[in-house]
Write a structure and sequence with these properties.
Shape: globular
Number of helices: 16
Helix content: over 70%
Structural class: mainly alpha
Strand order of the largest sheet: 1-2
Order of helices and strands: HHHHHHHHHHHHHHHHEE
Largest sheet: 2 strands, antiparallel
Strand content: under 5%
Distance between the termini: 42 Å
Radius of gyration: 23 Å
Length: about 475
């Protein structure tokens, strides 16, 4: 009897092995995982400029009112958010996929165009009326945002087809977040000094050439990602599938519980981070009385956050993605709220803002792995894989969060009486401080609640899903590629 059982087990294992489509137990080469992070490094050289410095460029460099600038950011980000389903659908609807893969070529071509548009957003033609300046700002940033979707959607989707191994995904989430924070670090430390060095008192000239340098570096970093990565996961794609539209977009959102939780969480985390980045230059110049402190504070804050991001694989391995994210949110919230309560002081501000930013960078890094897991969850639930449109749904929340950050930053400046290039009133200074510290603190508390109560895809559940997908199975049966 024991011999028969052994033979049966052996035969079953052999059959199971033959049905294996992918093997999530195997890891991809380290160089691919590192190369993947260079994509967000390049992304940050172009994206972070707009999030951190376009507000100041348009208000102080071009002379557009703070309230109008807030409207530009809010409208264009909402516009971009609704363009994401289009970008995701276009990516997913690609049928003729060559040897370079589905996502990599799309990403690289779009990145080159994005570099050109990044420079155009920091350009304002001479002799324009104020109305024409506003129209130019709207148009340039709307086109930039649409191109960003066609760059970032395939880049984000790429991770899910590079590997399904959980350690690989944690590693790629780490390299991606290191790339993102590394770009923030360089932009935060070098961009303003570079504009002053190049342009002197001519702010428009300084911003133009500094953005040109950053855009060139950004495209080169994307090239490293393109040449260094591969799409290793075999995916069953239905050749007869109909083209996707908005109905598929909303179906993806409402039928994928983990994705819905990530979307809601991201509204809080990204708006908190972007508000911090946008307000830092104002806080340093007016509340601390020295704009020269901005590069120093950013260097310390973002340098420490890079160290924190390196800890992601260790933390997630020992505590899991969910617990690590929750604890980080709570620590970040406490640090930001203390910064709001305490009086202005350079030393205490730097310590607390560094703790808060590092505590936010860690779960933001984990989010990338969560999104890849949500893509797999969606395939497991439906039997059909939709990387582009799933990632577009996630990106939608990032765009709305960026719009919220713009409304908070520019709105607070307008409502509290901010005057460009002039001493500020007590009301304006308090508004800057509240946007810089209180708003992120509240957002991180809400993010902790969302991830704690609504995100149900723990590590054990995902391991079961990955095993099913490795063997070509979804929740309802066998995945077909016809």
């Amino acid at each position: 009897m024991e011999s028969i059982n052994s033979d049966d087990t052996s035969e079953s294992s052999k059959k199971d092995s033959q049905n294996l489509v992918n093997d999530s137990s195997k890891q991809i080469p380290v160089y691919q995982k590192i190369a993947y992070g260079f994509g967000d490094f390049g992304n940050g050289f172009m994206f972070d400029l707009g999030q951190s410095y376009l507000t100041k460029f348009w208000i102080d460099g071009v002379g557009i009112g703070a309230g109008v600038v807030g409207g530009i950011f809010a409208f264009t980000k909402i516009f971009d958010a609704f363009m994401d389903p289009i970008a995701g659908s276009v990516v997913d609807n690609r049928k003729h996929i060559g040897k370079r893969g589905k996502f990599r070529p799309f990403m690289m071509v779009s990145a080159i165009i994005l570099g050109v548009l990044t420079v155009l957003t920091f350009t304002m033609p001479n002799n324009l009326t104020m109305t024409q300046k506003i129209i130019y700002a709207y148009a340039a940033y709307m086109i930039w945002g649409l191109t960003y979707s066609f760059t970032n959607d395939p880049y984000g989707s790429l991770a899910s087809v590079m590997s399904r191994n959980s350690q690989d995904r944690s590693f790629m989430a780490t390299t991606r977040q290191i790339g993102s924070v590394g770009a923030q670090f360089i932009a935060g430390v070098a961009f303003i000094p570079l504009t002053v060095m190049i342009g002197g008192s001519n702010q428009k000239k300084g911003y133009f050439f500094a953005s040109l340098i950053f855009a060139i570096i950004g495209v080169l970093m994307f090239a490293i990602c393109y040449f260094g990565t591969r799409e290793n996961v075999h995916v069953n794609r239905k050749k007869s599938a109909q083209k996707e539209g908005f109905k598929d977009y909303f179906r993806v959102i409402f039928k994928n519980g983990p994705l819905g939780a990530i979307i809601l969480m991201t509204l809080f985390t990204i708006s908190a981070m972007n508000t911090n980045n946008q307000m830092m230059v104002f806080y340093a110049e007016y509340n601390l009385g020295n704009i020269g402190l901005q590069p120093l504070i950013n260097a310390i804050m973002m340098g420490c956050s890079i160290v924190g991001v390196f800890m992601i694989p260790f933390l997630t391995k020992h505590f899991g993605q969910k617990k690590t994210a929750m604890c980080s949110f709570i620590i970040g919230a406490v640090a930001n709220l203390l910064n709001f309560i305490l009086p202005n002081n350079v030393v205490t501000f730097i310590i607390l803002v560094t703790i808060g930013y590092t505590a936010l960078a860690i779960p933001n890094g984990i989010t990338w792995a969560m999104v890849s897991n949500a893509i797999d969850y969606g395939e497991w639930r439906s039997g059909t894989r939709k990387e582009g449109i799933t990632y577009a749904a996630f990106n939608f929340s990032r765009k709305i969060a960026q719009s919220l950050a713009a409304l908070v930053s520019s709105g607070v400046l307008a409502l509290t009486g901010y005057v460009a290039n002039a001493p500020q009133t007590a009301s304006a200074l308090q508004g800057i401080k509240a946007a810089m510290t209180l708003y992120p603190g509240v957002c991180l508390l809400l993010a902790a609640v969302v991830i704690g109560f609504l995100y149900k895809l723990d590590d054990k559940k995902f391991a079961q899903i990955a095993d099913d997908l490795d063997h070509g199975r979804w929740e309802g049966g066998k995945i077909s590629d016809n």
